[in-house]
Automatic annotation (TrEMBL):
Gene Ontology molecular functions: DNA binding; UDP-N-acetylglucosamine 1-carboxyvinyltransferase activity
Family: Belongs to the EPSP synthase family. MurA subfamily.
Keyword Metal-binding: no
Start and end residues of each HTH cro/C1-type domain: 18-72
Pfam families: EPSP_synthase, HTH_3
Catalytic activity: phosphoenolpyruvate + UDP-N-acetyl-alpha-D-glucosamine = UDP-N-acetyl-3-O-(1-carboxyvinyl)-alpha-D-glucosamine + phosphate
Cellular component terms (Gene Ontology): cytoplasm
Family annotation (Gene3D superfamilies): Enolpyruvate transferase domain, lambda repressor-like DNA-binding domains
GO BP terms, alphabetized: cell division; cell wall organization; peptidoglycan biosynthetic process; regulation of cell shape
High-level lineage: Bacteria, Bacillati, Actinomycetota, Actinomycetes, Micrococcales
Identification of the protein by name: UDP-N-acetylglucosamine 1-carboxyvinyltransferase
Amino acid sequence: MTTLEDDTTPLAVIGTLIRSARQHKGLTQAQLAESLSTSQSAIARIEQGSQNLSVDMLARINAALEADLLPFAGTTRPTHLRVTGAQQLSGTITVNSSKNAAVALLCASLLNRGRTVLRRVARIVEVDRIVAVLRSIGVQVTWSEDGHDLEIVRPEHLDLSAIDNDAARRTRSIIMFFGPLLGQEPAFDLPYAGGCDLGTRTVEPHMIALRPFGLDVSASAGVYHAAVAPNTGERVRVVLTERGDTVTENAIMAAAGREGVTEIRNASPNYMVQDLCFYLELLGIRIDGIGTTTLTVHGAGEINADVEYQVSEDPVEAMSMLTAGIVTNSEITVARVPIEFMEIELAVLSEMGLRYTLSEEYPALNGRTRLVDLTVHPSALKAPIDKIHPMPFPGLNIDNLPFFALIAACATGHTTIHDWVYDSRAIHLTDLTRLGANVRLLDPHRLDVTGPTHWSGAEVSCPPALRPAVVILLAMLAAKGTSVLRGVDIIARGYEQLADRLRELGAHIETFRD
């Protein structure tokens, strides 16, 4: 009997597809197990990506779920979406937990020699890749039976020589292994970081942030070679040259894992950084200044604690769902919005004429993040007087900027979108012209958007960058007729079952493969 290769990454992806198809059919793990004449624990292992699958078993699962989960040829066919647009949306959708926070917390779990349980983790490709890397170096990572929680137990010694190079190179997040590892290993290698196609993104800010901790890095043959000087115990002062989220997280993890006090200036106080700090506090690390640009971290040489942490809600997903309501001129409610990280976006939208209402604030399950339920109402939008551009928190979120290009295309007048962070992300947003938008590229960082747009359906190849890909999908919801978005697998890097969730609001989206 032919079996799939014992490769954690594809098995995890297949497990995610099976779990999604099962839930879409309304079946429990026990019910699916009964139809397949197997055990519930076997289904749980399959959905966790920790059990090999035969071709015969895949065929039986396909039949039981009435799904086309995986072709049996050597490669997976790309996934496409067919959208029937200009449909009114309605209802309530709840914001999922933060992908960026989950990735940081998974990396930070390397600091803890005890047991970490992360609650409500987004089951997305980016998370699965980090899980694959952790498992490859000896960390026990187990999904709960319902697929929502992760239990992480690291071994006494990490086997970095066995690292899953393929999974590591497919995610830029591997760069955040430097921080937790430099206090534990005198020398180690990491594969080059990958991720979205957004132009040149230098890792030098990370190196600048970590040199005060004794890190020295050279690169050759696709590998970072790291050497770490012994800790002198002296107070460390770090000034970040870039107020980046992952740079700040790397510095915080390096500081948490060393004996002594570290002061970090020009730190990002963004949502994923705060989540990381809240988790480290549970581990017994004292951090002064959370939510500000100056952090003082009182590190520990060894951390051994059994903790559980609830990952906070994702403001970028909240913005995605809010945009779906805006562009379809619908009234929808987006529940569990982390309002602290959406206030600038809402202020800009108010200037553009958006009508919305907010519930009273209530605490997230982590007890720290402030949430609201946000209802967006059909509105006549106008272009803002000033350009729209991102800034480090508390400014407009860099990941939320692409949604404003789409919203601007629905507004009357000219809007300048200035994406100064990335070299080529703005170029991907010009694909909106395929659907009828008037979007002109002024230079690699600036767009001129003129609205309102009379959207019409078209076939578009998915941009090779996460947020622009979602922007094109949301634009198709507004377009008359039928649109096709080809090759949408990149969306799974940052969103869990996005098409299914939009369908819950009334969107007409069909998933298919050639």
